[in-house]
Amino acid sequence: MGVEVVVEGLSKSFGSQAIWRDVSLTLPAGEISVLLGPSGTGKSVFLKSLVGLLTPERGKILINGVDLCRCSESKLYEIRKLFGVLFQDGALFGSMNLFDNVAFPLREHTRKTEAEIRRIVLEKMEMVELVGAERKLPGEISGGMRKRAGLARALVLDPEIILCDEPDSGLDPVRTANLSQLLIDLNAQIDATILIVTHNITVARTVPDNLGMLFRRELVMFGPREMLLTSDNPVVVQFINGRRVGPIGMSEEKDQAAVAAELAGHQSGPPDEDVRGIVPQLEPTPGLPRRQGALRRKDRVMRDLHALPAAARQGVLDSLTDEDRARYGMLAGVGAPVAPAAQPVSAVVPEWQPRHGHLPAPPGAAGPDPSDQRPVRRRGRWRFGRGGGNQRGGRSA
């Protein structure tokens, strides 16, 4: 199974230019997360920081109890072996055929025999549907094939964490859909922790378990996919709908006067279509096992369902199958969810939780109206309660 990645208060600058600051989130073990954001918000810088290629000025990146920002070079080298990275352009060596490109990490970092290397390379190339293309050069294949070759190379050392930097860039919608399904299938087979950076809204709506967004050098929000896909945050609404009018401009952000003027002029025109909302998440290809990360994530979200905003909570309930309702002790969609019988609550370690770690109140118990609650960030974690607060930088759900 993949490992958990905990980011606490991370800040990165280049000289006097702040890229992002005080970013806190958790990538749950074995789950797929997506990070959105306008161009220039430092998403690729964030990935490079996670793998130790860049060193943030402040904060922590904790993997298996090791802080990558402060550990020794030898320890960092060992932790990096947990990662596989799919770079934006595939980053293949143009003079090597696909087999040698995929084999490169094994020859560089292990002492395996050529027979072992051949077995592993062919196995990974089969996983990404590249069997038969081993002798082709990168310049002889399509962009989609180059992406898949880069993914095969990222897999040869059996990583527990896979980082994908805009895997859909330069691909047509059909190839993007195929690559999205491939990532879901890989997660079902190897249960690795996956983080995808993308601009593609279709990918963001259909692939991840958890979803976040960077803007104005801060993390707007990060948590269960339902939170962002139903959010009323103006930045999220504009980005998901691809609208010209809103806080995001050509230079990433606009001042408040410009936004107000745009909105005033925009109100006289026809209403924009709003594509927010929760669509079904991609399932593994028939014949593959169920995604264990998706099951763990559902247990966690259902346990803390009362703490989600009302729209996100309803989206979760609407997505439940009859099997889910039986698992969580719900009859015909009515009643409070309880811990699944097959896995007691004590066996489920939360990635985020309400204040004091309270579990959902039993049916009929007195308490505040959960529909009147908003997320508030406290000490790098999300809690949900009455009152204001800036929705940024929470721990993941």
Automatic annotation (TrEMBL):
Domain ABC transporter: 5-241
Entry keywords, A to Z: ATP-binding, Nucleotide-binding, Transport
Biased composition (Gly residues): 385-397
Region annotation (Disordered) ranges: 265-291, 353-397
Matches recorded under Pfam families: ABC_tran
Domain of life the protein comes from: Bacteria
Gene Ontology molecular-function annotations: ATP binding; ATP hydrolysis activity
Name of the protein described by the UniProt record: Phospholipid/cholesterol/gamma-HCH transport system ATP-binding protein
